[in-house]
Amino acid sequence: MARAVVTVPAQAKRGEIVEIKTLAQHAMETGFRRTQTGDLIPRDIIRRFTCTYNGVEVYRADLQPAIAANPLIAFTTVATESGTLSFHWAGDNGYTVTEIAPIRVE
Fold it and tell me: Does pTM top 0.70 for this prediction?
């Protein structure tokens, strides 16, 4: 089962830059390796990560086969208003994970 962990400050001051960290659990496969019999192992990676803040996209990353398994993604955004951060990972073979985290802005 796919799992993800997000770290978001519970509260922030309006205009403050906040750091957000995410970690998605995924056994990545580049698509370049071969089995012992020489057959190519099919690619299985997370292809895209997006984060929205109250429905507005604030971060997006398109990932490539060189990305590590269980990728840690850290970025910053400006705390503008209280609401919800929504995180979505999408990949090969129907892989999708969505996590939601609240933030209170004072």
Answer: yes
